[in-house]
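WARN  no MSA supplied for this record, continuing single-sequence
INFO  ligand: glycine
INFO  echoing inputs
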Amino acid sequence: MRHSFMRLLHIALGLIHLFSIEETTGQHVSFHRGAVSAAHPLAVEAGLEILKSGGNAIDAAVAVHFALASVYQIAGNVAGGGFAVVHVPDGRILTLDFRETAPAAAYDSMYAYLMARYPDTKPSLEGATSVGIPGSVAGLFALHDSLGSLPWHRCLQPAIQLADSHRLTPYMASQWLRHTSDIKRISGFLPSFLLHDDSLYPGQLVRQSELANLLRRIAAFGPDSFYHGTFALQMADFLQTHGGVHTAEDFASYQPVWRKPELIPYRGYLIATMPLPSAGGIGLRHFCGMSESLNLHRIKPYSPRYAHYFAEMAKRVYAHRHKYLGDPRDTDPDILSRITSDTYIRQMASSISPTFRTPSAAFGTPSPASIESFETTHYCTADSTGLLVSITTTLNGYFGSKLYFHGMFFNNEMDDFSTLPGQSNQFGLPFSTANKVRPNRRMLSSMTPAILLHRGLPIAAVGTPGGTTIITNIFQVLELMSRGWPLEKAIDQKKLHAQWLPDELIVENGALNPTTIKKLQKMGYQIREIEQIGIFNAIYITPNRNFVPLADSKRKGDSCASGW
Ligand code: GLY
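INFO  complex generated
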């Protein structure tokens, strides 16, 4: 069953290729009209369908976003949030923040209070108390309102059809199976197609009529049908019944925000990415600046010296993130301009010794922490007018809060705030005053959708899930590209991750050879090998302006890319 289903999907995508191939570059096919890369083949098909109907890359992004909500429910979302980086035909880069916000009644010690009162619960991770006010519907609508070309309702049609009926991939069948009992425990019931969870299998037909109806309303009436009126009241009631403090007013007052992009010159390239409340822009600026000071490009990638410099830079990036970064409204602009100045970043680099490891405690008091699982998703779209779109979106954990309502899962983004003094969040990040829970504020994120430019022209859109590993992963891909590596090789390369705390170097299996690992251990490194870091989706643009859609085929998941 699994085999024949996957074959059908591949044949369908193969046919798309066959009728649209323009040229072949290495193993990859390039296209001149448009391209889509996303975490699920059916979402890629949705984006291509819209491009072929005369839509532009923004229309395709709307189609992909809501298709992911229908078929990739671990991270695709209606009730999540994210960030968009867009290159527009006149050469401008726009960035839209549709990150979730804390409800107005949230306060800094709310999770300490909830934990004391209900010691056996995980209030920032599960259920209504973990839910931030979602930004995706408003965000995608704002993008479309400014830059879309097809009618909004048309862009949601593929997602509605997929919600009505699609077949499970083996990966998604396994994800539903893994999380079904938690979903049932937290929501109190299961979506109807999961009622007989022992029969979940690859190729199974999934019918989500509630989700299809919700998407139909959003398609017909836009974000007002979500943030205002009956549905907003129902969401607030439902969340309050489950222990949340959300009100209809919280939904009514949600606004996405156009922000000034973070533009980072790096070895002849320009990286365009998100400013706060993403820590990605400032983190990448720190990484890129320090690596230029250290002449990292002269050091063999994934050698002991490279891994040491990488880990030392990462410690400094994350210690700064922890100390200074949060919602932009609470962050002192003078401090921000000081810590992002070239002089300051050179000083950060000059504190790195080529031979000695700095213990994390040098930057503050360590606390016990570990990196756990994390899920988010990235997609990119491109068209021949010059629109290039790079979007990372999330529910935070797998299926977010695991609270199911009208066919959608609410996010558990509140855990991205620093919720408990003295304790770490699911990514192992310790408590930070800069990122403490405040009413109506956005929680700090690591999502780093990026567009890479060379000589003023965009040459790639890239992004990956992976919580705190996103920033380190994106940096490694861009650093390898700046050495002349093809993007697909940089994506395939096994990666490293480190952050200030826990004080360890995380190694994706195979990134470092055993001799290198031994040398690093002698320097005092705690090494932890893990199976997978992130999963990239990207579009590369060739010098003759053709698109090479790229999906990460080396790591687990349904990542897919195609064009026409
Ligand atoms: N929820 C993961 C992130 O925003 O970085």
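The longest strand covers residues 81-87.
INFO  checksum written, moving to next record
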